[in-house]
Amino acid sequence: VDRGKMLAFVRQFRPPFPILVGGGRMKQTYHYRGLPYSVLLDRRGRIIERIFGFGGAAEFANMRRTIANEVRAP
Prior knowledge:
Layout: H1 3-13, H2 24-30, E1 37-41, E2 47-52, H3 56-72
Antiparallel strand pairs: 1-2
């Protein structure tokens, strides 16, 4: 990930969740198979969804629903 592009994205869109960039350590921790790879975590840090690659509009809509449900959860 290009650090400058990632920071520009975060500044522009201000996602209400953390963005992690960890180099080689991330692969050891989350065991992903390729990039891009997204992991959605709950408030306790547990993995609730893994997204491999670019899934298009349908995948993005599903991710938004998952995040919205998690934000509403107690």
